Amino acid sequence: NTIVAIVPAAGSGQRMQSTMPKQYIKIGHATILEHTLQKLLSIPQISQIIVAISSDDDYFSTLEIASHPKIKTTIGGDTRAASVLAGLRLADETSWALVHDAARPCVCVSDIEMLIKTVFDYQQGAILATKITDTIKKSISSTDCTPVQIEQTCDRRFLWAAATPQMFNVKDLTTCLIRAEQQHVELTDEASAIEYGGGHPILVECKRDNIKVTRLEDLPLATLYLQEQGY
Ligand code: CTP
Ligand code: MG
């Protein structure tokens, strides 16, 4: 039951519109990526952390945390899935992969621990997620064309917003991600690769702190959550 954390951190943060990739923006005393790595480092069951960085990354090697004995880097790919696959290639086939976005620094350590406990108890893959509180409308065509008519209201009692970490065994996840890649299925998380392969991962509810820092307006919120958590 060894766990390898894989941290996709090879994105360029287009939607943040900042000069540096968003994972290197500072919140308080540390960058977003450092906050994320600190959370993972505080869990003793995680034996190694593989960070997938961009081939033209000039920032990672300047961080103090880069020399931590548990942390290794690899070069990510053009998509998040490709970056995760690059990380998986360095992981032992018999271990568990805990994939966590660099851009989610506010995840609660206790929620990660709950995810790990669930995976070990059920011996099945699982992900952190939050219950949907909004009323969700499905439109008759894609959200790219607005205004657009409503097709129907979704039954919220069954809806969750997927977050990370997402934890699967290395072998299954690798197989499913490669299959999805070969069939040109676009994925935004690991669970969808497993689902595509016929699996039904478990949802573990996490606190709403676990936002993905995506746009400029997410920074004040992330700052507040980290402050409240004592970072
Ligand atoms: N990521 C990655 N490799 C890619 C694309 C994304 O490792 N080719 C990582 C990002 O660094 C981030 C996580 O996947 O930690 C989630 O992706 P997202 O929030 O979309 O980040 P970016 O792709 O950097 O942002 P944007 O989509 O706005 O460009
Ligand atoms: Mg992206």
Automatic annotation (TrEMBL):
Catalytic reactions on record: 2-C-methyl-D-erythritol 4-phosphate + CTP + H(+) = 4-CDP-2-C-methyl-D-erythritol + diphosphate
Pathway where it operates: Isoprenoid biosynthesis; isopentenyl diphosphate biosynthesis via DXP pathway; isopentenyl diphosphate from 1-deoxy-D-xylulose 5-phosphate: step 2/6
Keyword flag Nucleotidyltransferase: yes
Keywords: Isoprene biosynthesis, Nucleotidyltransferase, Transferase
Catalytic class of the enzyme: transferase
GO molecular function, one term: nucleotidyltransferase activity
UniProt-annotated site: Transition state stabilizer, residues: 15, 22
Pfam family, one: IspD
EC number of this enzyme: 2.7.7.60
Stretches assigned to coiled coil: none
Site features described as Positions MEP for the nucleophilic attack, chain residue numbers: 156, 212
Top-rank taxon: Bacteria
UniProt keyword Transferase, yes or no: yes
Function description: Catalyzes the formation of 4-diphosphocytidyl-2-C-methyl-D-erythritol from CTP and 2-C-methyl-D-erythritol 4-phosphate (MEP).
Family: Belongs to the IspD/TarI cytidylyltransferase family. IspD subfamily.
PANTHER family: 2-C-METHYL-D-ERYTHRITOL 4-PHOSPHATE CYTIDYLYLTRANSFERASE, CHLOROPLASTIC (PTHR32125:SF4)
HAMAP family the UniProt entry points to: IspD (MF_00108)
Listed name of the protein: 2-C-methyl-D-erythritol 4-phosphate cytidylyltransferase
Encoding gene per record: ispD
